[in-house]
Design brief:
The complex is a heterodimer of chains A (291) and B (375).
Chain A (H helix, E strand, L loop, with lengths): L1 E10 L2 E11 L2 E6 L6 H8 L7 E6 L2 E2 H4 L1 H4 L2 E4 L11 H11 L4 H14 L15 H13 L5 E5 L7 H14 L4 E6 L2 H5 L4 E6 L2 E6 L1 H6 L5 E7 L3 H7 L1 E8 L2 E7 L9 E2 L4 H8 L1 H7 L1
Parallel strand pairs in A: 3-8, 3-9, 6-7, 7-8
Antiparallel strand pairs in A: 1-2, 1-4, 4-5, 9-10, 11-13, 11-14, 12-13
Helix pairs in contact in A: 4-5, 5-6
Chain B lengths: L1 H10 L2 H24 L6 H15 L5 H24 L1 H5 L5 H6 L7 H13 L3 H17 L10 H12 L9 H25 L1 H8 L3 H5 L6 H29 L26 H27 L5 H23 L12 H26 L4
Classes of the chains: A alpha/beta (291), B mainly alpha (375).
Chain lengths: 291, 375
């Protein structure tokens, strides 16, 4: 079990995370927040790449930095930017990383074959990676994170560059893996984790906002999410009075999905909230700022 | 061991080998070729031959009796020159019937005919005897000055000159092979320095700019990989220096100077030194020096490589160091490392200082790497 205790991180005057407390047991955790919210900082602290300015992170009661290689040998990590040697083949690169992970060459070769099969790269085992697409590179990244059969798997934006078919395959793979280990996925793509995460962690204003199941997080908006159809001319006024989640043109009218807290109108249909609704609602200021 | 081997393979790639060959080919033809291709150059040939003859006949030192014998050989050669000049009527017509007259002739206000005859002797027919005589005269002249000490020397230098005179270590042997070697090693030093910096510079930066470090540092090996990279860099430096020294000394062997190897450096003309190794021992000293300088620059390159953000900055920061060393440090630390014209302990203190600085610098970087945030 990983415990994040009173962790803060500052870069000079800038505070990236403030007083974060978390607990992770086995299962799949989705770390969901818009870009720049501090996801990668938290992930990198869990991966020992960044040290907390304050607070500590424990694995089974021991500080992960003190555990040193005993922690890292249990860790599988895929960074947001997966770096590689372009003249290496996946096999060469995985063998290189296997050596760093302390895996013997013979065991590594068997494991590499198995993993490349799992990520559908068995037909390009010996091809140079410089010819690979973004999705193929990302799959090599996923394979390397699994090389040492980690107890803790931390994946930072793992689905970047994957096509829908690859994403679906990846989700199945994660569901299998999370049965007997701790998997943390950082993403800003809600659909990647909505259906598979045991718990979702949301960070806002440098602090923990939610750490709960998808159902419980969605329940925070129960009775507040509606859909209705309006004229295109009414859209501007409607935006001013409600928090719009999505809008779709249908037969000359607009079908809108929105949040309204208070009395509803008769023509509005109450719909069950989705995780994306909560995401859009909670981060509306940041998202509007981005736009 | 596998990790170290992998890091070493990343440094010594085929691409790097090709680049190394290219750089060294360019530097060879620009700096080194002349001292291999044209040795002994022109009249140095007679100096070189005379040196070999002296070593064969007198060994690596010359005592008074041996010098008398040397002078006798000179007198015999003068006689041969006299015979040659007297056998040629035209020399007699110009008043050059003996070598003494030929030597003491007023060549500044020479007649056209005398000039033609001299050119014929030295250049058109290239009579070896006349060249050799000049060289013998030069050596005899040096012998006569063997007990003199240059003026305006520091006390220590003066003492050293006196010591050498007391030990009968005079500059008697032709310096042609020695000077050739000094020029050769200075330029080999430049080639090796550039090669080491070229090969070692990207070692740490490459992984950082390719964003491979986060993956490396989250493995079991973790940040200790930094030390392995440094070790791989040091081994690669050692390999590069050894390979280049092998190539360059193989080329140097074409100069055929091994007969001078047992001669002590103080007995070469104009080469008074603080210490008195043989030529061969000096070569070994040079090799030790170039390994130290190479390893120091290798470690410096890796240190810079772990500090700067990109390749352009890396090149930019290293140019002043390399050029600065070539201007200030190359000669005092390599060819002139024991020369009396530099302070006695300059090279030793300089070597110790740069070694300590670089080791401390590397230790500080390792400490920094252990703690730093990998963003």
């Amino acid at each position: 079990m990983i415990v994040v205790k009173d962790v803060s991180k500052q870069y000079g005057d800038f505070t990236a995370l403030q007083n974060v407390n978390l607990e992770f047991g086995n299962g799949l955790y989705g770390l969901l927040a818009p870009n720049g919210a501090g996801k990668t900082t938290l992930i990198k602290m869990l991966a020992t790449l960044i040290a907390p300015t304050e607070g500590e992170i424990f694995y089974n009661g021991k500080n992960i930095n003190d555990m040193d290689d005993r922690y890292r040998e249990r860790l599988g990590y895929l960074p947001q930017q997966f770096g590689y040697y372009k003249n290496y083949s996946p096999k060469q690169y995985l063998l290189y990383l296997a050596a760093l992970k302390g895996i013997g060459k013979k065991d590594a070769l068997d494991k590499i074959e198995e993993l490349l099969e799992k990520v559908a790269l068995s037909d390009v085992v010996n091809k140079k990676m410089k010819k690979f697409s973004g999705g193929m590179i990302q799959r090599v990244g996923i394979a390397q994170a699994l090389l040492n059969d980690p107890e803790i798997l931390i994946l930072d934006e793992p689905t970047a560059g994957l096509d829908p078919k690859e994403r679906a395959r990846f989700r199945h793979l994660l569901t299998d893996l999370a049965r007997e280990r701790l998997v943390i996925i950082s993403t800003h793509i809600v659909s990647d984790i909505e259906s598979i995460a045991n718990e979702i962690i949301m960070i806002r204003n440098k602090q923990l906002l939610y750490k709960d199941s998808v159902a419980d997080i969605c329940a925070t908006l129960n009775g507040c999410v509606f859909e209705t159809t309006i004229d295109y001319d009414q859209l501007e006024d409607f935006r001013k009075n409600n928090i719009l989640l999505s809008e779709k043109q249908e037969y000359g009218n607009m079908t809108v999905r929105f949040i309204h807290k208070g009395d509803s109108e008769i023509e509005w249909t109450s719909v069950p909230p989705h995780l994306e609704d909560v995401f859009l609602y909670e981060y509306r200021d940041e998202l509007e700022g981005d736009n | 061991m596998r990790v170290l081997w992998n890091e070493l393979k990343k440094i010594l790639t085929w691409k790097m080998l090709v680049l190394l060959i290219f750089i060294n080919s360019v530097l060879y033809f620009l700096l080194i070729e002349f001292d291999i291709e044209y040795f002994p150059n022109g009249s140095d040939m007679y100096s070189y031959n005379l040196g070999i003859e002296m070593i064969k006949k007198y060994g690596i030192t010359m005592d008074r009796d041996e010098f008398i014998d040397f002078e006798k050989t000179y007198a015999d050669d003068v006689k041969k020159a006299d015979d040659y000049l007297q056998s040629r009527e035209e020399f007699g017509e110009e008043g050059l019937e003996t070598y003494e007259k030929f030597r003491d002739y007023d060549w500044v206000n020479r007649s056209g005919k005398a000039s033609e005859l001299r050119d014929e002797v030295f250049f058109n027919q290239s009579v070896d005897l006349f060249w050799e005589l000049q060289e013998r005269e030069r050596l005899i002249e040096f012998y006569k000055w063997k007990d003199s000490i240059p003026e305006r020397l520091s006390k220590k230098k003066q003492q050293r000159f006196e010591e050498l005179i007391a030990q009968k270590k005079f500059g008697l042997y032709p310096e042609v092979a020695w000077m050739n070697f000094k020029r050769f090693i200075a330029n080999v030093g430049i080639a090796i320095l550039f090669s080491v910096v070229l090969v070692i510079s990207p070692v740490i930066l490459k992984d950082r700019s390719r964003q491979i470090v986060p993956m490396q540092y989250t493995t079991k090996k973790g940040r200790k990989l930094f030390r392995t990279k440094i070790l791989a860099g040091v081994i690669a430096t050692f390999i590069v220096i050894t390979a280049l020294l092998t190539v360059y000394f193989s080329l140097y062997s074409l100069n055929n100077t091994s007969m001078f190897f047992d001669v002590r450096v103080n007995t070469f003309i104009g080469n008074e030194s603080w210490f008195d190794p043989t030529f061969f021992q000096f070569i070994m000293l040079f090799i030790s020096g170039i390994y130290i300088i190479g390893l120091v620059f290798g470690l410096l390159s890796m240190a810079f490589s772990s500090l700067v953000p990109n390749m352009v900055s890396l090149i930019g920061i290293q140019i002043p160091f390399v050029i600065g060393f070539l201007i200030i440090g190359l000669y005092p630390l390599l060819p002139d490392m024991i020369s009396i014209w530099n302070p006695k302990w300059l090279s030793l203190i300089s070597y110790c200082t740069i070694i300590i600085i670089v080791i401390l610098f590397t230790a500080v970087l390792w400490k920094r790497e252990k703690k730093m945030d990998i963003l």
